[in-house]
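ok so dumb question maybe but i'm new to this and my supervisor (M.) told me to 'just get the structure for Membrane fusion protein, multidrug efflux system' and walked off. so i did the thing. is this what she meant?? sequence i used:
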Amino acid sequence: METSTIKKTHPGNIILSVLAILVVLGAIVYFINYFITGSNYIETNDAQVESYINPVSARVSGYIKDVRFDEHQQVREGDTLVTIDDREYRERVTEAEAAVEDSKAQLLVLDAGIASSETSTLVNKDQINGAKARLVQQAADMKRYKNLMKEEATTGADLELVQSRYDVSVSDYSAAQNNLRTSYAKIAELRSHKALLAADLKRKTAELKLARINLGYTVILAPYTGRMGRKTIQEGQQIQAGQPLVSIVNERDKWITANFKETQVYGMYIGQPVDIKVDAIDDKVYHGHIEAISASTGAKFSLLSPDNATGNFVKIVQRVPIKIKFTSKNIEQVKAGMNVLVSVKKK
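this is what came out, is it supposed to look like this??
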């Protein structure tokens, strides 16, 4: 009697076979999707999120009085970040105000002097008129006495007396005219001095404005709405003018700099739609469009650009920076510096 032996398949082999089939199917799906995507999109993962990260610097030197922000704190435009001890700057403002008041007082005194000198010219003119009238009278007496002398109706002593009176009148008239000229010269001198005082007042007023501006610089404000960077300053610390105190990230303006291969950029155009996947954010696709295409490769912007005029040459595919602007609105979770995968839709 013959017996037949039935071989049983081990369960592990079944599992391995199923896994192999799934791997093959997955690979097939992946390659199909890869070729479909490659035919419709141009991709690069050499891309990062960019944003304006500006240092907030001190405009004046001094000791830090108060630090009013924390690391990575959200701030609004105009919020106070740092205050500097302002006692010295307040005294400078007071000193500049006193200098301005002193110049104004000197101008008032000078205006009074000019007014007094102008009044003196009126007196001088009256003196000239009086001296002129006396001179005319003495000239008439002199003429009459000369005629009487010819007729021998008067003595030589009387004629000499009239002559001396006439000479005195001529001198008085000339002195009155000179006094008027002196008054005019004094007025001109005072007015020129007034111009100097006016210029000095203008300079001191500018110094006062500058002192007030420097006083205002003791309060450091947020230049725009954003998020603060690392906190590296403390109260009581001495800082200098121009010293960076903290960085602030402008979260309202974000874009992507994608470095495409030079063989990929042909046919790209401004406004071309882009799909964006952020490495740190799964299962979410952001949208944007090309805003600008660089006029040269990234290597040309480097400090030491490559020089291929040497003996040995190795051809390297160059990268062209392209600026991509987000069109999606909800991008709060996208942070500056994050890596992204950029897919540019072909025409």
